[in-house]
């Protein structure tokens, strides 16, 4: 837990540094432009066995939890100039699975649900040499969790557990311009947890097309 908090503090410090540098950096103004991007990557949603336990069901054992894996982020942004922009993104995440759950009065079952994220961020960019840019992002995200799916003995049922929360989001990254339109983009995003929705970390690398 301490390591995770230190990582979040360090990322926030980097974000502030990049934002501060962008304010201090004076560059030639360029025409505003829209861009589109996609990043396949990896996400960790930090769900543990304890997250499934509730007072209403006496769970005695959970075999394993899968809450990380392949993910991706689609996004569209608008650059006001070289230093400032806005971005809207959608993150699709791997299904969260609680495997071989044992509870008093129930047959062993598996529980799973889908979770997705919509984010809205302000973006500060620091242009460097050799067509490389550093950037930081900060904003808010809407985390959406679908109903739990319970399965046992070949039978499947849904448990009403939909939840939607608005949480802070921060991130940082670097891009490289092959030309005026096509960029490679590597970034990290952290979406904070709230109530029983756990924090999500996403790392992705992909391409941007700038109009």
Structure characterization notes:
There is one protein chain. The protein is mainly beta. It has 1 helix and 13 strands. The strands form 2 sheets. The chain has an 8-stranded antiparallel beta barrel with strand order 1-3-4-7-8-11-12-13. Strands 2-5-6-9-10 form a 5-stranded antiparallel β-sheet, with no helix packed on it. A hairpin with a 4-residue loop joins strand 11 and strand 12 (182-191). The chain is elongated and about 65 Å long.
Summarize this structure as a short list of keywords or feature phrases.
single chain; 211 residues; mainly beta; Porin; eight-stranded antiparallel barrel; five-stranded antiparallel β-sheet; 13 strands; disordered N terminus
Strand order, sheet with most strands: 1-3-4-7-8-11-12-13
The CATH topology label is Porin
Instruction: Specify the number of helices.
Output: 1
CATH class reads Mainly Beta
Rg, rounded, reads 20 Å
Number of strands: 13
* Tally of domains: 1
Helical residue percent band: 10-25%
The low-confidence runs, each spanning 5 or more residues with pLDDT under 50, are 1-29
- What separation lies between the terminal Cα atoms? 42 Å
What is the CATH architecture assignment? Beta Barrel
| pLDDT averaged residue by residue | 86
Taken in chain order, the helices and strands follow as HEEEEEEEEEEEEE
Shape: elongated
């Amino acid at each position: 837990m301490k390591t995770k908090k230190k990582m979040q503090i360090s990322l926030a410090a980097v974000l502030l540094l990049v934002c501060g540098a962008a304010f201090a950096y004076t560059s030639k103004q360029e025409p505003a432009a829209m861009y589109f991007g996609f990043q396949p990557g990896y996400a960790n949603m930090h769900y543990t066995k304890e997250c499934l336990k509730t007072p209403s069901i006496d769970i005695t054992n959970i075999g394993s939890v899968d809450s990380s894996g392949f993910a991706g982020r689609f996004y569209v942004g608008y650059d006001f100039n070289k230093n400032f922009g806005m971005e809207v993104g959608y993150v699709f995440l791997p299904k969260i699975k609680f495997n071989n759950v044992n509870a008093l009065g129930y047959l062993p079952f598996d529980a799973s649900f889908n979770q997705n994220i919509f984010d809205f961020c302000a973006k500060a960019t620091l242009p460097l040499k050799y067509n490389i840019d550093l950037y930081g992002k900060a904003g808010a995200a809407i985390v959406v969790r679908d109903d739990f799916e319970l399965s046992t003995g070949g039978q499947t049922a849904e448990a009403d557990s939909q939840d939607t929360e608005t949480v802070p989001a921060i991130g940082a990254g670097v891009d490289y311009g092959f030309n005026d339109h096509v960029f490679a983009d590597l970034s990290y995003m952290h979406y904070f947890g709230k109530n029983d929705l756990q924090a999500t970390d996403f790392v992705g690398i992909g391409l941007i097309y700038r109009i």
